Structure to design on (354 residues):
């Protein structure tokens, strides 16, 4: 009998109008979302694609117009490859994602897959700092630049590597949370 | 689908099913700010889903799925602060409070919020009178799994409500 009482309490809500929707604010919110660049779903993916592409092209052109250094060409080529890899990853992820139409369980599985891919990309981009650092320092040394400059570059890249860890941890936290929800849903007994 | 047609369907759904959205946001949030935030996320997902609806299920089942998916993956405003911010700071008040909820209804919502996140979804569907089959269509788990969990949820809810 007790649960039936709870249902009676629940059904008294139909007699109440708790909220009124601010239609104008709602339309503004929808319009704003529509104007966002939705073909680039992840901010971090966009940053990786564009910065590597721009940096690679800039390096190649600068190197061509000055004393052309083979190592700098290698670095430019590497950065362009990274940009292409990130773009392929992005489009593959978008192709697999389905927006909002799955069951709750299906949607969690989909979200876990997306989060796992995001972690994969953030790890690869983090490790990418290593070959980029090697190319830069190698290039500097081969052109006779000072050792101090090479050390400064090395330290800066180390800082970049450290801070990219925060983004990686963010995605790992998100994945853990999603897996926890999926386990909750699948678990019949507490 | 034209934008006009999408807008027409969206407005129809919103008018007819707003109680459904309000219940879900009250189950998953405790503060007015979080309610605004989650409500905005839900209506945007509902808007985006309109062209994808092919009448393979009832509209209510569709909307339950979208709203519960959004609510489960939604993180609280406090967790979001310090990470990438979205439009939270620009959230204009989408919800205007008209009445104060009855104490017993509010106590029931508190009891539901004390459940695990996935159990809250089932509690809501149960209280709204959905059949086990309908719940299975929304949640994507078997009817037998639902049956086992429902018995536990009923017990937890009544015990929790008594203490409040």
């Amino acid at each position: 009998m007790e649960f039936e009482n709870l249902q009676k309490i629940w059904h008294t809500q139909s007699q109440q109008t708790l909220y009124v929707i601010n239609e104008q604010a709602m339309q503004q919110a929808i319009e704003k979302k529509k104007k966002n660049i939705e073909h680039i779903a992840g901010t971090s993916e966009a940053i990786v694609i564009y910065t590597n592409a721009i940096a690679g092209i800039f390096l190649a052109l600068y190197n061509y117009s000055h004393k052309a250094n083979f190592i700098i060409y290698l670095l430019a080529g590497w950065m362009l490859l990274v940009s292409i890899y990130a773009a392929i990853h992005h489009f593959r992820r978008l192709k697999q994602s389905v927006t909002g139409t799955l069951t709750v369980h299906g949607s969690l599985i989909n979200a876990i897959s997306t989060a796992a891919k995001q972690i994969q990309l953030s790890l690869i981009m983090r490790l990418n700092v290593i070959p980029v650092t090697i190319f830069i320092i190698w290039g500097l040394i081969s052109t006779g630049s000072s050792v101090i400059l090479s050390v400064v570059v090395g330290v800066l890249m180390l800082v970049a590597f450290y801070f990219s860890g925060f983004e990686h941890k963010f995605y790992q936290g998100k994945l853990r949370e999603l897996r926890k929800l999926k386990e909750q849903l699948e678990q019949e007994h507490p | 689908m034209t934008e006009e047609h999408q807008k027409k369907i969206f407005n129809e759904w919103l008018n007819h099913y707003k109680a459904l959205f309000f219940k879900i946001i009250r189950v998953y949030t405790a503060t007015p700010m979080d309610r605004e935030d989650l409500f905005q996320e839900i209506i945007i997902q509902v808007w985006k889903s309109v062209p994808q609806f092919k009448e393979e299920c009832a509209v209510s089942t569709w909307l339950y799925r979208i709203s519960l998916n959004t609510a489960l993956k939604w993180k609280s405003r406090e967790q979001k602060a310090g990470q990438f911010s979205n439009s939270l700071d620009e959230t204009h008040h989408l919800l205007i409070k008209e009445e104060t909820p009855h104490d017993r209804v509010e106590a029931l919502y508190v009891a539901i919020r004390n459940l695990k996140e996935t159990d809250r979804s089932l509690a809501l569907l149960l209280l709204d009178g959905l059949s086990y089959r309908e719940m299975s269509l929304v949640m994507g788990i078997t009817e037998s799994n639902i049956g086992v969990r429902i018995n536990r949820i009923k017990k937890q809810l009544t015990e929790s409500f008594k203490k409040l």
Residues 170 and 188 of chain A are 29 Å apart (CA to CA). Helices of chain A lie at 2-11, 23-35, 43-65, 70-96, 104-127, 129-142, 147-186. The first strand of chain A starts at residue 19 and ends at 21.
